[in-house]
Design a protein that fits this description.
There is one protein chain. With 535 residues, the chain is an alpha+beta fold. The chain has a domain at 19-248 and 356-397. The protein is 36% helix and 19% strand. It has 18 helices and 21 strands. It has helices at 29-40, 45-59, 95-100, 119-130, 135-148, 154-170, 177-183, 199-211, 214-218, 220-231, 238-242, 270-281, 290-311, 322-325, 328-335, 441-453, 459-464, 484-492; strands at 17-19, 22-26, 69-76, 79-85, 150-151, 195-196, 247-249, 252-256, 259-263, 356-362, 367-373, 383-384, 389-390, 421-425, 428-436, 468-472, 475-478, 496-499, 508-514, 520-524, 531-534. Strands 1-20-19-15-14-9-8 form a 7-stranded antiparallel β-sheet. A 7-stranded antiparallel β-sheet has the order 7-4-3-11-10-2-21. The chain has a 3-stranded mixed β-sheet with strand order 16-17-18, covered by helices on one side. Strand 17 (475-478), helix 18 and strand 18 form a beta-alpha-beta unit. The radius of gyration is 22 Å and the shape is globular.
């Protein structure tokens, strides 16, 4: 692919970055530089991805942590691989327990929504299969920042302060004391430019690096996690941790505008993005421009989300296969429902059958699309004392309705919002892309892919472009950058349009593309503190 052909007269806020030897794109400059440091020491794209991911648990704890889950798409030596490192519900956690405790829905905070963390196992699995330098070398930058500290960047400081307001109201009792001591030292969030450090976090990363993450799942760290949960009435046990292993999976793909767009299969929601593109493809090669282009995107996305929210869960219990959602005949049926007016989506009948994202590439052709998250900001608001291990609250997405596909069951993996994307053309890697941000993620994936492939934008312009976000029914929120006449035209079609005053909810993405000559082109999100570190 000729990356320099992806030009578009759009006023980019940053310049696209070009390089040849290697590139790391993340939402935090320090993490991007950590990945680049590993590349310059002889590591490959996989080493760099793990280095950046571990570093992000330190330099962006508002979105992820050691207790997070992770997903990755890896292109290595001509082949695409997928890794699902999302952990299941504890074996002792049942819907009956939740209902008997008075819960109608899964709680957001505390130990009840805590599922088995998958991120440390993901780092170890990636390094064991593809890495060059070893886990200790990859985690060294993260350990240094945790031990010695770093000053907060602007967007990080903004979200940390917002978390202080939200969590201070919600977190009461001994189970949250260590969390507050770790992330709200002195009773408040650290301020922009102020230094924060976490020695316990550094010690935990050292143990993970030294043991290939075994200590986290079978050793002293596992014992401390399980003991804390038991002490405070939680459900996560040593057995849950010891029995966990990440799963290598085959990525799912659809052909779109001469490229193949790849996502991971459920329990992630990547299939929603793929189904949206599959539906749009049925409407023809020219989707118009301006508000009609946006209208068709929104309507297709709504139909795909209606299906996804109805059926996506642990693939072992799904009534409908992911491939069925991507069936061409079914896509034509869904596309036929799209009219000139805004509709209210409903599930069809397919044939039976707060997060960090990073991208890396090296000079030998390997590329990684990686995402990890604690979910909903800092996660459960629980830190294992003196470890820096902030536990995720991914179980919050389980349903307590026994008729729902994503009904809570012991050992089951829940519907997962975090997804990583990848582009190929004629079997060759074009590059990784991703947009973090809860249920915005498949919407962001669709928009940046179509910005590049339909509108011809380069990676940076594709990320800079103003976005829309569908919430429910006919409700659509748009960024202030969307032209007023476009927003008004969408409203005339029946969309209930509101203009957001803050762009924080529209996702934060990274893109790296490689052209036929091996030149890398990278774009980083203007809505965060992101950076492209290149060599």
């Amino acid at each position: 692919m000729q990356v320099d052909a992806l030009t578009y007269p759009y006023p980019s806020r940053r310049s696209v970055v070009y390089a040849e030897r290697g590139m790391v794109a993340t939402s935090q400059p320090l993490a991007a530089q950590a990945g680049l440091e590993v590349l310059r020491r002889g590591g490959n794209a996989i080493d760099a991805a793990v280095a950046a991911a571990a570093c992000l648990t330190v330099v962006e704890p508002t979105s992820n942590g050691i207790g997070a889950d992770a997903f990755a798409i890896i292109y290595h030596q001509g082949k695409l691989y997928g890794l699902n490192a999302s952990g299941p519900a504890p074996l002792s956690l049942t819907a009956e327990h939740m209902r008997s405790a008075g819960h109608v829905t899964m709680p957001r905070f505390g130990l009840a929504p805590v599922t088995v963390p998958g991120a440390p196992a993901a780092w170890a699995a990636l390094m064991e299969r593809f890495g060059r330098l070893g886990l200790e070398a990859a985690l060294a930058p993260a350990i240094e920042y945790a031990r010695d500290g770093y000053p907060l960047s602007p967007v990080l400081g903004k979200y940390w302060a917002a978390a202080q307001r939200a969590y201070a109201r919600a977190l009461q009792g001994p189970v949250h004391e260590s969390f507050l001591a770790t992330f709200m030292p002195g009773g408040r969030a650290p301020r922009i430019g102020e230094k924060w450090r976490s020695p316990g976090h550094a010690a935990t990363l050292e143990a993970i690096a030294r043991t290939g993450a075994r200590d986290f799942y079978e050793g002293e760290l596992a014992q401390r996690i399980a003991a804390f949960c038991k002490q405070h009435g939680g459900y996560l046990s040593e057995e849950d941790l010891a029995s966990f292993a990440p799963e290598w999976v085959e990525p799912l793909g659809v052909s779109y505008r001469g490229y193949d767009v790849w996502e991971l299969p459920p329990n992630g929601q990547g299939v929603v993005a793929l189904q949206t593109l599959q539906i749009l493809k049925q409407l023809g090669p020219d989707l118009g421009a301006g508000e009609r282009f946006t209208h068709l995107q929104i309507e297709a996305l709504k139909l795909a989300f209606a299906d996804g929210l109805q059926v996506i869960t642990d693939p072992k219990t799904m009534a409908v296969s992911a491939s069925a959602l991507l069936d061409e005949t079914y896509a034509r049926q869904r596309a036929a429902l799209i009219g000139e007016e805004a509709g209210v989506p409903f599930p069809g009948s397919p044939p039976k059958g707060g997060t960090v994202y990073l991208a890396t590439a090296d000079r030998d052709g390997s590329m990684v699309s990686f995402i990890q998250s604690n979910y909903m900001g800092f996660g459960a608001g629980v830190v294992i004392p003196d470890t820096g291990i902030s536990l995720q609250n991914r179980g919050h997405t389980f349903s307590l309705d026994a008729t729902h596909a994503n009904y809570l069951e012991p050992g089951k993996r829940t519907y997962h919002t975090i997804i990583s994307g990848f582009l190929t053309k004629d079997g060759e890697a074009v590059g990784p892309f991703g947009v973090m941000g809860g249920y915005m993620q498949p919407q962001g994936h669709v928009q940046v892919v179509m910005n590049m492939l339909d509108l011809g934008m380069n990676p940076q312009a594709a990320l800079d472009a103003p976005r829309w976000q569908w919430h429910e029914g006919r409700k659509v929120e748009v960024e202030r950058g969307i032209p007023e006449h476009v927003a008004q035209a969408l409203a005339r079609r029946g969309h209930e349009v509101t203009v957001a005053l803050d762009s924080g909810g529209f996702g934060r993405g990274q893109i790296i593309l490689r052209d036929a000559q091996g030149i890398l082109a990278g774009g980083t999100e203007p809505r965060t503190d992101g950076q492209i570190a290149a060599w």
